[in-house]
Structures are given as structure tokens and as C-alpha cells.
Amino acid sequence: MEKNVRSTKQPEGSFEVKRKEPFSDKLKKLQNGRTVRQCAEDWGINLSTLKNYFSRPDATPRFDVLSKISSTEGVSIEWLLGDEDSFEVVKSEGTLPKCARGVWRRRLTDMLDLLDEDDLEALTKQLTLKGLETILYLLDEDNIALLKLDKVVKEKILGKQPQTEAVANHNYEKAKECGADNEERADTESLASDKKRAV
Predict the structure, then answer these.
(1) Whole-angstrom Cα distance, residue 81 to residue 101?
(2) If DSSP codes are grouped into helix, strand and coil, which group holds residue 146?
(3) How many structural domains are present in the chain?
(4) Cα–Cα distance, 186 to 174 (Å, whole number)
(5) Is residue 169 situated within a structural domain?
(6) pLDDT tens digits for range 43-74
(7) Comparing 31-35, 163-167, 175-179, 192-196, which segment has the lowest mean pLDDT?
(8) In what ranges is there compositional bias, type Basic and acidic residues (predicted)?
(9) End of a domain among 44, 63, 92?
């Protein structure tokens, strides 16, 4: 007699049994071209934890992980767990969902809630002053020109690159040609650095 042995129980009857989509598949749908590392940073989850969820379809996520992903991506926890299959992730390229933008707004308002009225006033004044200083700085065409300079040139001007004695002498001569606001300073300082002076 030959026994009919099944390795797994097969559904029988007229209704098809729907299987839950694994959590890892839901994560892949939300990934949207990002690396796992980028997702971990965006969602505020430990990288090794997230890698574990991606690699093991049977992994059961903790509630705090579900909550972070749900609020950042604008999906329900039920959808993440596979209990809801009607939700479609709809995101236009390059834009964050409203929920993700809301997370940052909430974090900022939570921080501001910690301040009393005097601190809020001081912070507002400081931000306003710094903003105005920056705008005024950017109105100066010379500053704009300096910002547009090549990185190497900027580093040389700031004295961040090592110079030979010949280069230091050349910079010193150029500085003298340009003239300085104070003649005494022109003799002792070059444009490149106050550490390296021509003898």
C-alpha cells in the first residue's frame, strides 16, 4: 500500500486562501531606489536591524520599528504587517510624503516646546540676525565671487594647503601688488597664511 504523503497542507475548497505578504517585501516596496543604509537613516532604525528584516521574510518587526516606518512613509502599520492589502504606496519621484515632512515639523515643535517665552524670543532674534547677516553678506559681489572660486583656490587663500617657500614668496608679492588696507600688515602677512611668511 502506498501512502499519499503531503509535505505541506494544501488549501481545499472553493475559497482561495490569501497569504500575507512578508514584511521584507513591504520594505522593498517602500525602498524606492534607496539603499538599505539610506532607509535605516530615514526611518531612524539601526542598520543591522533593518538588514535583518530585509533578509528574513519570516522576521516579526517590533512595534517601535513599525511605528517609525509608518509615520515616515505615510503607510499604516496594518499594511506593513500584511493585514491590509488595499493600500498602494503612491509617491511622486523626489518628494517626501506629507507624513515624512510632518515628522520633522513635530520634532522641531517638540524642541521649541521645551523653551520658555524668553528663550523663544532670544532664539527668534538670533535666527533673524543671523539670517540678515547672511543676506547682507551675499549682497556683496566680492563675497559671491569668493564663494564661486574653485575649492583648491579657496584652500590656498585660507592657508589650508601646504606651500613651498617659492609659492609663499609669490603669494606675498601678489599681496603687496594688490595693496593692503594697512601698509604695516602688508609687510608681515600674505594672503595665504599668517603662519607662512616670506623672509
Answers:
(1) 23
(2) helix
(3) 2
(4) 10
(5) yes
(6) 999 999 999 988 887 888 888 888 888 888 88
(7) 192-196
(8) 171-199
(9) 92
